[in-house]
Amino acid sequence: MTATMVGPYTMLGITGGTxxxxxxxxxxxxxxxxxxxxxxxxxxxxxxxxxxxxxGSALVIGGxxxxxxxxxxxxxxxxxxxxxxxxxxSMANTPRQRQYHSVAALxxxxxxxxxxxxxxxxxxxxxxxxxxxxxxxxxxDGSGELAPRPQITNAPKTASWGERMTFTSPQAASIxxxxxxxxxxxxxxxxxxxAFVPAExxxxxxxxxxxxxxxxxxxxxxxxxxxxxxxxxxxxxxxVVRIDPAADSTPRSTATASSxxxxxxxxxxxxxxxxxxxxxxxxxxxxxxxxxDFGRSxxxxxxxxHNRTDTTTNRQRLxxxxxxxxxxxxxxxxxxxxRSQPGVTAKQLxxxxxxxxxxxxxxxxxxxxxxxxxxxxxNLKEVVPTFSATPAPQLGLTKTSQTDSQVVVKVANTGTAxxxxxxxxxxxxxxxxxxxxNAPFTVAAGRGRRR
Length: 451
Ligand SMILES: [Ca+2]
Hints:
Blueprint (H helix, E strand, L loop, with lengths): L1 E6 L2 E5 L7 E5 L7 E5 L10 E4 L5 E4 L16 E4 L6 E3 L12 E4 L5 E4 L13 E4 L25 E2 L4 E5 L6 E8 L3 E2 L2 E2 L4 E4 L1 E4 L2 E5 L10 E9 L8 E5 L11 E3 L22 E2 L3 E2 L2 E18 L5 H4 L6 E5 L8 H5 L5 E4 L7 E16 L3 E2 L2 E2 L1 E7 L6 E8 L3 E8 L26 E5 L7
Parallel strand pairs: 12-21
Antiparallel strand pairs: 1-2, 2-3, 3-4, 5-6, 6-7, 7-8, 9-10, 10-11, 13-19, 14-17, 14-20, 15-16, 18-19, 20-21, 22-25, 23-30, 24-29, 25-28, 25-31, 26-27, 26-28, 32-33, 33-34
The protein binds calcium ion.
Calcium ion binds next to loops.
């Protein structure tokens, strides 16, 4: 018996017995896993190990055929399961037997490593390993030559749910899809860290955007191999990205400022991870500002401003500055107008500021601005936000009126997370009503009612 994840909510199970049955287990339904059979393997694979590959296919390696849960007559066959056909195809045999206490794992270079075995009551333990090169790494012309692979020349180190990761690839134009495979933690026939997630891609020049699903159940936190797969089905070597709900991959280039006083003090230096050296200096001007665009609304707990510290005068330039946070763009560069812009949180720094200043926000925000309410030069080293996972909007239902023929129901977002109710679909016969944003809607009484 072995199993491996071949989709966010789909496990491929190989019973391993002489029936050679395999099945897919859909665990997307709460508390109700749904099994269905898929193709049978050619050989039994008792104590074989299954491994998911970058394209969503899977291998089963080794095991035995003689009915023992641990050791028996070795099976050398390697088989590959296709998600398109549900059928298994024989691959090259393993050079050595791989039974109980053997391991196998997908590597970031797209190959599979298989190693070990202990044989009960004999001296035939296998202290060795081997690499399997899957067919997708070869040219499809039968020449036996390795195929050219798309390359990743730059990749983010971390990303959060719902975020777009941007990869640089000279072969970006040929990329058709991307997959995330969590780094392996394999023992005793199972990868206990297994997770496989296909992701949407969008290509712009040599940049490949890969969208991390917004749901942590779809892509559990952890370190993933991200493979970019080209039009010939050839995967890149993986970039390893840590999916962390508190991670921040906002490009520093999304920082802007009202002006720049000297070439060494551009706006991006307020968001480059360097908290030690002077970052941003604007010209002395009326109400100077610096701001960052996170690219989408994030749940921002607080921001810490790393202040200039060389002289008291320079440190106090941030005194009484305003911190603005908003889900929508700021519509004015005036302090008074921004303070009164709907949806904007405005917090003022004290009249004496230290080397770091923490400002609690505790709200969803895409834009954060720091602005001085007088003529001065704005100076700071770095702005560091703390993020948390964005909670989902929550629906609340209220019955507002009822007659013999109709019920008027209002659906609203009662949660702390921002979000607008665009439509509502009710299950049950004839009950399929939609409503505009946060609007009440009417359901004909009796239709679909259970009697
Ligand atoms: Ca900095």
